[in-house]
Structure formats: structure tokens, C-alpha cells
Amino acid sequence: MGATTDARVDEWRRYVQRRAAIAASDVDEMEAHLRDQVDDLVAVGLDEDEAFLVAVKRLGNVDALSQEFAREHADRLWKQHVASSPADGERAPEFGVVLLLGVLAALAVRVGIAVLSDQTVVGNAPLLVLPFLGGYFAWKRRVSVTVALTGLVAVAALAVVLNAYPFDGFKGTHVLALVHAPVLLWCLVGVAYGGGRWRSRRRRMDFVRFTGEWVIYYALLALGGMALTGLTAAAFVALGLEPDAALAEWIVPMGAAGAVLVAAWLVEAKQSIIENMAPVLTRVFTPLTVVLLVALFVGLVGGGDLSAVDRQLLMVMDLVLVLVVGLVLYAVSARDPLAPPGWFDRLQLLLVVCALAVDAVVLVAMVVRIADAGLTANKVAALGLNLVLLVNLLRSLQLSTAFVRGRRPFDALERWQTGYLPVYAAWAAVVVIALPPLFHWA
Amino acid sequence: MHIDKDLVAASATPLVLAILGEGDSYGYAILKRIRELSGGHLSWTDGMLYPLLHRLERQGLVTASWDTVEGRKRKHYALTAAGGDALAERRQQWQVVAEALDRVWRDVVPPATAGGMA
């Protein structure tokens, strides 16, 4: 093959490689194809220039090709699937909508502070803010009227349950319901995020990715906000003015509400998964969590008094399992499903095994205690969440073992994780809706 | 003869699986084999084969490996056991479709042949 063809192939490579959805290895694969094709065409009598042109044309339009690659390799360009907006010339600029919704969310919280008791505002804060986030995605993905109305009805129903149930004070089942309600609201946001197509695995995974990035952006905004309000407060105090009331009732709650929308917009504005932070943190914290779990196991079996195991330990264990499931989920969300099993997959397997071992000890101790002392709403909630996470981890263990041994593709684990997401929502719904009446609102 | 786009798309996966069932192969050779098998009637934009192969790889139906032949890096694909099962299943499905079409067409005399015979 001549030097001109080599130069042209290089030029073609550079052109194709600019597409984020097409990886360097894909370009390698197609280059071999291109060169094979040129050879064959030259063999039947074309000159090299003609052969190259024909071969490139047969390979196909690069835009269409890039779209096809993006469809298969969602992980490379996750935003593209949900953000497929054609020419939206007459739509309001996105940032304007975000700003408006952010201000509305902040005002909703402010009005809440003005008319409701402190406890009620804190309990209802997600209800006051998250519908605006859902509204942003409903607008951006142009969800159908049915989906939008269903979402609104669900939010209204949740508001009624949380506020009209005859709870016996701000404790027990009431606190449980308030803690679990944001999970349901977040799932509704997820439905809007996926444009109403909540059954799609791919959209669920995109929402998981979004959630991870959103948490990180929100934390960064919160840090910046705290530094700024701290400085402002210090300046006012130095001037002899008392800024506490303004901060507690206006600036902090309204800023926290508005930041929910701004963080979402920042995540949306990002380009590709390369910039994602959650998977990076996952890689850092997976080994550290393994160490933590081993220490916990040694503490439990060696030094700890298992008869003193109480609900609090079970709740802490639940949080540890949430962390482990989160680490597994975020590792899955960023993994190239085609890559062969590596050290990180084995480490993750070890993480799951450790978590299961620790949880087994805690669970046994808890079941003994419950047999002695009977069930309370808190114990049911803690135990139920534990079981929900346990089932996820047991199956994850089975699937990752099969993957590491080369018996199953990685896809199976991803499928399991995305398929399991509605279970969390279902469990949260049980705690919010069914648990209070079952335990007589205590 | 132009073959409908949907039909080409529907037959792509079973064809690729079946060709890999004949033995390991790589992208360009698979496309050549498809042209050969269909007498050149069945062909699609060459590049589109690759995302399809990657999907089969992700689903665990094929495995891939790189090797270099005469300085040219090539990605070879081979059918896995799961791929073999998928192929058998697809084959049964297509056979049902083909037989049904065959039966219904046996009774209807094709227009062109009918004109020639009369």
C-alpha cells in the first residue's frame, strides 16, 4: 500500500477519532477493514485513490456511525441518549429555566419557613424542592402529559400521606416515613430524567450516573456556600450587626434549595463520562471500605459484646451496606462492559464478601434480640432495608464470581443492578405508606 | 434488488452469529461472506457491523481477541457457548418464519413465472 494511502488513512483516523463515542480501538478495527477493502479494490483494478474513496464511503457516514457506536457504548457518552434534543430554536434557553425553577424552589422553602413549624419544614423540605427538579427534567425531556400528571399525583399523594396521617408526634413511624420519602421522590425525579421511559435499563443507568455526579456537585456547592456565608457572617459580626436570623431563615435554606437545581444543571452541562467523579471516588474508596469491613468484622467477632447489639448497630450496618451497594453500583456504571475481569473486579468481590460476612454476624445477633424483645417499627424498617440490600449483594456476589471466572458476561451484573432499582423504591413506599398504620402511628 | 431496511436489520444478528458458527472471523471477512451468501443483495453500510459485533460481545455471545497479521492489527471474533445457544434459537425462529412464507407462497403462483408459463 502506497505512502499516499497511509497519509490518507492517518487523516481519516484523526477525523473519526474526534467523536467521543468511537474509541481508539474501534478506529483500529475499522482501519484494518479500510485497508483490507482498499487492497481488494486495487486487486480488481482501481487505483489507490479511487479505492480509498470507495472504501471510506462504504464504511459509512461518520456521524451516523458515531451515533450507532454511542447507542452500543452508552458508557462513553451517557449524556447523549437522554439529551437527544434536535433543533430547539424556539425553546427558552435552558439556564433561564433552571434559574426560574431554582428561584421557585427557594421561594417554596421560604414560604414553608414562614407558615409552617420548624419540624414540618424540615420534614417536608424534599417535597418542597424536588418537584421543581422533576419539573426541570420533564421540561427538558418533553415528557408526555400522562407522565407529568402521574408524577404530580404521586407527589401530591406523598404529601398527603406525610402530613395527613395521624402520626403520634415527631418520632417513630413519622420519622421513618420522612426519611424514606426522599427516596420515592428521587425515583420520581428519575422517571422524569428518563423522559418517562423508566423501564429502559439504559436510562436507569444514566440516572444512576446522574445521581452520583449530582451528589458531588451539590457537596461542592454546599462547601462553597458555607465558606461564603461564613465570611459574610464574620464581616457582619465585625461591623457589629447580627446576621444569624437572616442566615438561618433566608440565605441558607433558600441557597440549599436553589443549589439542587443548579447542581443538576451543571451535571447536565457536562460532556462525557471521562469527566465523571463518582467512579473515581468508587475506585479510591473500595479498598478503604474493605479495610473498614475487616476491622469491623474483627471488632464484632473478637472484642464486641454481641448480646449488646441493638437497633443502632443494625442501622449503622444498613448504612454500611448502602455504601457497599453504592460502590458496586458506581463501579458498574463506569465499567467498560467488554473489558476482561481485572484486579478491581476481584477487589470488589472481596468487598461484597466482607460486607456479607459482617452483615451475617449483625443479623444473627439482631434476630436473637428481636425474638426476645419483639418487633418495633424501627426494627422492621432497619431489618427490611437490610434484607433488601442483602438480596442485592448475594446475587451480585454470584454474578461477579461468574464474571471473574469467565462464565458470564459483565452485562449480567449490570442488568441485575439496574433491574433491582425499583425494589428500593418499593421498599421505601412500604415504609412510608404501610408501616405507620401497621404500628398504629406510634 | 433492493431489500427493505427492517429486513436487513432483523437478519443481521442471525447472519453474523451463523457466519461465526462456521469458524472464527473478523469484520471485513464477515461482510464479504454476507455479500457472497446473498449474491450481493444483502449488504449494509460496512461500519455498522462493528457496533453490532460489540453488542454481541457485551452480551457474551461472542468473544474477541486482537492479533497482528502482516503488520495489520485485526480483531477476531469467536462464537461462545452462549452464542451457540442463541444461534440455535434464532435458527428455529427463522425456520418457522421461512416455512410459513414458503407454504403460503406455494399456493400463490408468482406473477412473473405465471406469465412465462402461460
UniProtKB/TrEMBL annotation, chain A:
Q: Do you know which InterPro entries this protein is assigned to?
A: Perm_prefix_1 (IPR047928)
Annotated transmembrane regions:
95-115, 121-139, 146-167, 173-194, 215-238, 250-268, 280-301, 313-335, 347-368, 380-397, 418-439
Q: Which keywords fit this entry according to its UniProt record?
A: Membrane, Transmembrane, Transmembrane helix
Official protein name in the record: Permease prefix domain 1-containing protein
Automatic annotation (TrEMBL), chain B:
Pfam families in UniProt? PadR (PF03551)
Q: Which residues form a coiled coil?
A: none
Domain Transcription regulator PadR N-terminal span(s) in chain numbering = 16-89
Q: Which SUPFAM superfamilies match?
A: Winged helix' DNA-binding domain
Question: Which InterPro entries does this entry report, sorted A to Z?
Answer: Tscrpt_reg_PadR_N, WH-like_DNA-bd_sf, WH_DNA-bd_sf
**Where on the tree of life does the source sit, at the highest rank?**
Bacteria
Xref: PANTHER family = TRANSCRIPTIONAL REGULATOR YQJI (PTHR43252:SF7)
The identity of this protein, by name, is PadR family transcriptional regulator
The organism is Nocardioides eburneus
